[in-house]
Write a structure and sequence with these properties.
Distance between the termini: 53 Å
Largest sheet: 7 strands, mixed
Order of helices and strands: EHEEEEEHEHEEHEHEEH
Bound molecules: zinc ion
Helix content: 25-40%
CATH topology of the largest domain: Rossmann fold
CATH superfamily of the largest domain: Dipeptide transport protein
Radius of gyration: 18 Å
Strand content: 15-25%
CATH architecture of the largest domain: 3-Layer(aba) Sandwich
Shape: globular
CATH class of the largest domain: Alpha Beta
Length: 285
Amino acid sequence: MKLYICADMEGATGVVHRNDILDEGGEAYRSGCRMLTGDINAVIEGAISNGVREVVISEGHSHMRNVLLEQLHPAARLIRGPASWENKPLCQIQGLDSSFDLAFFVGFHSRAGTPKGLLAHTWAGAIVHEITLQGKPVGETAINAAICGSFGVPVALVTGAEDVCREARADLPEVEVISVKKNLGWNIAECWGPAATGPRLRSAAELAVQRFKQGHFEPWQPAGPFVAELETHRREMADKMALVPGLERIGERRLRVVHGEVTVALSTLWRGVTEAFKEPADWLK
Ligand SMILES: [Zn+2]
């Protein structure tokens, strides 16, 4: 069995604050990297104990170089490097193909706008107010599950705080979830330490693989054509996004793409987000 792991960071053990997840956080960030790597290793151990032979991890947070390679489980390979549109047209998912049997999402967080959501956002907190797919608000769990589904790969496990576990169950009713902390607000949570979350993550991964072998998981493959929309926080961001071929401006801050393939629709939105980061200089505003 071949396992694909998409790893974000906000949902890792103990992580609650931007200092825990951004380079400039110093020691707090380095601790966040250790926690994330520990969570990943724990689910890999659980998966391997139940018959997984190959593991590829795609980093999905910030500059996408957070996992400590020197501490990584020897069974895994790690895809590192930032999600410029040229590098990673599907943002957090790179290196996935139909040879994988199942996927885990580790360290995930709830979508933009989640009440009391811990570090909640979708793709880029500075840019994105909301993303919808087929008219329904989606976060990174649903977005990445749809991409995995397009390769025929089901998502078997989502890990993070309680809010993202609820979101994952609403989007993917069969999915196995494991909470490593209870969200109490934007940057506050009641946390277990790694000595407690490690064994829980390991057991959840073991169970997810067991349920996969029993045929519980189907790839998430909603019917097309796909209508994906993105609303930005500010008008200038939408101005930049509107330059991307395939994105139609449907409001002051809102853009839409329609395509028969979900990966193309989502990739077009991601390209727009990378353009939105290129705002004009202050003197041009
Ligand atoms: Zn992240």
